[in-house]
Design goal:
InterPro entries: ATPase_V1-cplx_f_g_su (IPR008218), ATPase_V1-cplx_fsu_bac/arc (IPR022944), ATPase_V1_fsu_sf (IPR036906). This protein is α/β, with parallel strands linked by helices. Helix content is about 40%, strand content about 20%. The protein has a 4-stranded parallel sheet with strand order 2-1-3-4, with helices on both faces. Strand 1, helix 1 and strand 2 form a beta-alpha-beta unit.
Length: about 110
């Protein structure tokens, strides 16, 4: 299967979170915060290789509403907010299961 598509996991988060994902074997790790994180997320959203984009909850919560709306409408990559070293932030977009359902259009685990 030479034409098989391969999708990667990318992480845009704070330093400690990125270190954890590097230790877990994720290669596309980008320690960024604030506007730099937002710019990197926008860049990765346009990448054909990225299938899952893991972002810091706090960065996700503070990003521009237009970028959030774009993420909500995209099926790929699936954007997954994760807590940072300070713990979970209040998340307006819902649970992981709800995000996957919104991205795919159906409930994956029933």
């Amino acid at each position: 299967m030479e034409n098989e598509l391969k999708h990667t996991i990318a992480v845009v988060a704070d330093g400690p979170t990125c270190t954890g994902f590097r230790l877990a074997g994720v290669q596309n790790v980008f320690p960024r915060q604030g506007k730099e994180a937002e710019q990197k997320i926008e860049e990765l959203l346009g990448s054909e290789e990225v299938g899952i984009l893991i972002v810091n909850e706090r960065a996700f919560g503070s990003m521009d509403w237009r970028l959030k709306r774009r993420i909500e409408r995209m099926a790929k990559p699936v954007v997954i907010p994760v807590p940072d070293k300070d713990g979970p932030a209040v998340q307006e977009s819902g649970s992981l299961a709800e995000m996957v359902k919104r991205a795919l259009g159906f409930e994956l685990m029933k």
